[in-house]
């Protein structure tokens, strides 16, 4: 289902563990409406696992009625061993959304890092910490696939805003910018 | 749909051009029931193209009610530039079949070549020529994606049989073996 007022759904594609995270609102009102992982058993054959993943993604889209899907762009150099199944999982997610008329945007890992932490070379821990702060969670979401999916959704919702906020932390800024600036300020204090 | 008496559907996965070929029967009765390609326009966005491909594959499965799907196993070393979209297309095909309870088997290009021509190092032209001979077609099917899909279906239907026929061309053999032996004999005469 497609709902223009629905949440932005981030998908960190994977066959063994596919992270998802849906956020609604912007700036300080931005909050998590659903998050988790879809797992398929390694003991099953590949086609069966792909079928299970497709079923689960369809159920998720039906349930959440997102306004957009943000999917990690799979880069081959990352890990050739898993790149195949990650590509297949991302393909299933994008096809499922497209068939329901849900707009899909792909973001590279570096775009997500840049949008959420202000640095395209941030490490995983930094991304996870910023996701927790921006969404006012007590701790970084686990497993990391959930944090990555939420980071994708954040990147889509407010990527440009977050970047501009990072560049002007000192200046007063409304909504999302304030949230990022506040999180960064807390960081700086520690 | 899954029909235990339905044809074997070969899929040569691709996003720009996805070949399919369905064959029914064995040996000399083996014949093509459907073949062609699914194309998606390069001018469309990737998610839309994946959605179109998924729709078309579902329609094909509904229409043909295959007893099995044979899909080319994507190897990364082949062509990194297209490997991503080929992997995504193969994932869509396998998921679609699995969701309908249709058994799926993947075959490597070498397994297909070996099954159809007797040599894992056969070139494309040889494979295409053998597909035409084994299925009694006037000419190799075009585009080559169709021939590749039919070769996959042949590999699934009679791979082992074809191989044993190649090893014993001289001895009398029933059905499929005879067809292969006859084709090879015609080859030898030229």
Structure description:
Two copies of one chain form a homodimer. With 190 residues, chain A is an alpha/beta fold. Chain A has helices spanning 46-64, 80-99, 109-117, 124-134, 144-167, 175-189, and strands at residues 8-12, 17-24, 31-39, 68-72, 104-107. The first copy, chain A, has one domain (8-189): Nucleotidyltransferase, domain 5, CATH 3.30.420.10. Helices cover 52% and strands 16% of the residues of chain A. A five-stranded mixed sheet of chain A has the order 3-2-1-4-5. Residues 160-174 of chain A have low confidence and may be disordered. Chain A binds chain B through residues 45-48, 50-55, 74, 76, 80, 83-84, 87-92, 94-99, 104, 106, and chain B through 45-48, 50-55, 74, 76, 80, 83-84, 87-92, 94-99, 104, 106.
The overall pLDDT of chain A, averaged over residues, is: 86
Helix share bin of chain A: 40-55%
CATH topology descriptor of chain A: Nucleotidyltransferase, domain 5
- Specify which chain pair forms the largest interface: A-B, 29 and 29 residues
CATH class of chain A: Alpha Beta
Number of strands of chain A: 5
Strand order of the largest sheet of chain A: 3-2-1-4-5
- End-to-end Cα distance of chain A: 44 Å
Shape, principal axes of CA atoms of chain A: globular
What is the CATH-assigned architecture of chain A?
2-Layer Sandwich
- Report the major sheet of chain A: 5 strands, mixed
Radius of gyration of chain A: 16 Å
Order of helices and strands of chain A: EEEHEHEHHHH
Indicate the structural class of chain A.
Answer: alpha/beta
- Assembly level: homodimer
């Amino acid at each position: 289902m497609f709902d223009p007022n629905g949440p932005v759904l981030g998908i960190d594609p994977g066959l063994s563990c596919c992270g998802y995270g849906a956020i609604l609102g912007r700036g300080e009102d931005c909050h998590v409406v659903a998050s988790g992982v879809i797992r398929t058993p390694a003991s099953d054959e590949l086609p069966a696992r792909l079928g299970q993943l497709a079923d689960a993604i369809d159920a998720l889209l039906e349930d959440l009625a997102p306004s957009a899907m943000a999917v990690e762009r799979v880069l081959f150099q990352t890990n050739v061993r898993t790149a195949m199944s990650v590509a297949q999982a991302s393909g299933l997610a994008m096809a499922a959304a497209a068939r329901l008329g849900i707009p899909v945007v792909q973001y590279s890992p570096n775009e997500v890092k840049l949008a959420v932490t202000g640095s395209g070379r941030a490490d995983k821990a930094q991304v996870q910490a910023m996701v927790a702060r921006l969404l006012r969670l007590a701790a970084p979401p686990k497993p990391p696939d959930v944090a990555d999916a939420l980071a994708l959704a954040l990147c889509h919702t407010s990527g440009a805003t977050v970047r501009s906020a990072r560049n002007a932390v000192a200046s007063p800024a409304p909504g999302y910018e304030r949230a990022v600036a506040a999180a960064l300020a807390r960081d700086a204090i520690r």
